[in-house]
Write a structure and sequence with these properties.
Elements: E1 2-6, E2 9-16, H1 22-27, E3 31-34, E4 39-43
Parallel strand pairs: 2-4
Antiparallel strand pairs: 1-2, 3-4
Length: about 50
């Protein structure tokens, strides 16, 4: 997991597959930012995109 500082707020950056993160799959997203949990989730490049 990588940590980044964006305008003074630290976020964790995580790569996940759609199988690991149901929010990615439900919404067919390539990634998202969770402001409450302070994390940025991106779709793992090895996963397939529909």
């Amino acid at each position: 997991m990588i940590k980044v500082n964006i305008l003074g707020t630290t976020y964790s950056v995580e790569k996940k597959s759609k199988e690991e993160d149901s929010y990615l799959e439900r919404n067919n997203f390539l990634g998202y930012c969770d402001e409450i949990a302070k994390k940025i989730v991106i779709l793992d490049g090895l996963s397939t995109v529909n």
